[in-house]
Amino acid sequence: MKKLILAAALTVCSPLLWAFSTAELSQTLQKPDNVQGAFTQQRYLKSLNKPMTTQGQFVLIPKRGLLWHMQKPFDNRLRVRSDGIMQWNGKSWAAANPSKMSGQAQQIRLFLDLLGGNAQGLEKQFTLKLSGTQQKWTLRLDPKTALMKQIFNHIDISGDTVVRRIELHEKQGDRTVMQFNQIQTGKELDAFAKQAL
């Protein structure tokens, strides 16, 4: 009898039974109509003693687009959709300068996949290792394409029903940490976000 109770207890406590898949994670992250909130990005460069910090607001509509509004240290608005990355010039959306945007564009497209739970898009370029539960999970991305191997050692993402933190470990030793807070899901979009996305 003791063995039976022990076996039942081990079965209930087994992390394998409570684990969830990247497909389930994708479904969770794609559930809300939209995700809005604030972000803080800290870029740790080997050459600097202090991290470079940027702050702002974002609006994500899964499978549709991302509006990235950096407010500090300067104002810059970017829109990422399947038709490309555009920058707001104060009057209209214009194609972002490719020479200035190439590296940033790739990161933002990556964030779109990360924040929007596009596991299929990520699996093309990374090996995914998911751990935790639906309420508290961590996803490790190890690069598998030649291009991503040149840029990243690995990427760590964590969250719950939304992404809360992304940490990029770059090949040359630099690191970027993004934290998302004041997150609201399904909230009415403001006029600018509606027009942009």
TrEMBL record:
Q: Keyword annotations for this protein?
A: Lipoprotein, Signal
Q: InterPro entries under this entry?
A: LolA/LolB/LppX, OM_lipoprot_carrier_LolA-like
The leader peptide range reads 1-19
> CDD domains per the record?
LolA
Gene3D superfamilies per record: Lipoprotein localisation LolA/LolB/LppX
Q: Which domain of life is it from?
A: Bacteria
UniProt-recorded name of the protein = Lipoprotein chaperone
- Naturally occurring in which organism (per UniProt): Neisseria zoodegmatis
